[in-house]
Sequence to fold (646 residues):
Amino acid sequence: MILRKSFILYVLVTSLCCSMAYAQKIQSYPIISPNGKIKLVLEYHQQAKIDSSASAEFDVYYLTNGKWTPILSDTEIGIATQKEQFKNLTLKSVGSVKRLNTRYKMISGKRKLCSNQANESTCNFVNANGKALNVIFRIYNDGIAFRYEFPKWSDQPVHIEDEYTTFNIPAQTDRWVQAYDPGYEDFYLYSNNGKGEKSQEWSYPALFKHQEAPVWYLISEAGNSEFNAASRLVNKKDVNRYKISYSAGRKSFPQQGDISTLPWKSQWHTVMIGSLATVVESTLIADVSEPSRIAQKDWIKPGAVAWIYWAYNHGSKDYQKAVEYTNLAKTMSWPYVLIDWEWDVMGNGGKLEDAVNYAKSKGIKPLIWYNSGTTDWSKDTPVDRMRTRERRIKEFEWLNKIGVYGIKVDFFAGDQQDMMKLYLDILQDAADHHLMVNFHGATIPRGWSRTYPNLMSVEAVFGAEWYNNGDVMTNKAAVHNTTLPFTRNVIGPMDYTPVTFSNSQHPHITSYGHELALSVVFESALQHFADRPEAYYALPDAPKNFLKAVPTAWDETRLLSGFPGKYVVMARRRGTKWYIGGLNGQEDAKVLQFNLDFLNKKQANINIIKDGENDKSFKSQKQLWHKGQPVKINCLPRGGFVAVVE
Fold:
């Protein structure tokens, strides 16, 4: 028995020594943001002597109270083509860290002057077959971004089939995510368990709150080119492991996966990180995107638009209704009127050219609607003028001739690569003909407003239009409206079509003050005000004059206070004026409180328009603010306010 025990002990010791001999070698490579608050650590694991398999992943940390708090741990990286797997990787080299520091201007968006400031490093890997993959990491002061790059190792087209990229989210993390829909028209529901009501596929952007530290992070993507499909997040196998996927939205198309000759670059995967204000104010999506491809930009003019569809679905085929909304734009000092679908069959006293000429005679610039022609379920007309370049160019030349200033293109077929190419082709051709663009029934913003500043807005939101389609908005709008500033609208312009005081097919129960505040809280370079003319004409002078003057493009944006689904106070500056909008998303009255010390003034005059005695009235007041004194405004249930600081 003693000999047997000694033998067993010998085997155990020998096994332990062998395990140590073959233990994993872990190499770590940190990259820190320029301000020293965010750290990404690439970890490369290699099993020595056993085989040549290896894996690479990264961790992200945020500096809180002098300590590095883990935000994302063990984020897996890797990608697959039709013929090659890039999962078990061998690290060949890690490039030196280089500083990026460029400045650029935006015509529209949350900020005019932007800074692309980051530390960048490129890591070179090879797979088991010796094929090269580069992973480019950028660490910003407000987040991280990374992308995949294939150098030229084949003369044949490469089919991108999948990614292994997976974000690991701690259990019980607070999250606000939207179930995936190709039109991105759903609610951002709160959960802390990662389980969906419809499926386990999620749209960008996805918002998460750290369990312990006051740190938030928003996952999205940007810089998609004609060689990239759009992706989504999937957590089917593990509710806390969000894998990037490309599967959905392609079934109707013979082309599967991205197809490109080498070299090839993926889109940027982005994670905004920091306080809730840091996330909301971030321009990371634009920062990583390509610079403007438009040299002359003086024809691109953000502005408010009179929009007919919300009140009259078929109004644009009625010449008299087109005249009515042109008159609204004139009365409200809005520069644009949108002539929506069915204008090609306009009657009742005039045709499209007559409506365009009438608008121009009043000093109003007309915009018109098109069907993208890419779906087999939408035949709304005109349907056949955007799909091919030959037809597009012919149409754009005609629009230049008659005096149309922009287009709204609707009903895109999904997020596959050929749709990304179509979006970009439309933007380029429209830019060549000095036409502004609004995409509807479309994908989310992906930084294209920097590359093509003529992209003024994108729908991709469950907006006011849905009051037409069912009663779900009636009871959910207030919570929804106070969630969007922290999710969807963070990544780019959002054509919600806001500020409605009357009712469409289904009523709204948000207050008039709440509706007025949407004009500031929601950002869109073309802000389509959706109500009936008589609803705007009936407004008291204060809110009416406010809507006549409120800008739609901003020099600076600040989140003053808020929490997703509960309340928000947003401040936006144009020139020397600050416009402030506040929303109460709750069923109880609430005092919205915020501070203006960032103004660096001892005092300032504030003109406030807030909820009146009931949800269909206003109260206007002037207030002298003194430095160090918080501003407190009483709001009704589902209420709101606007303010202008001189």
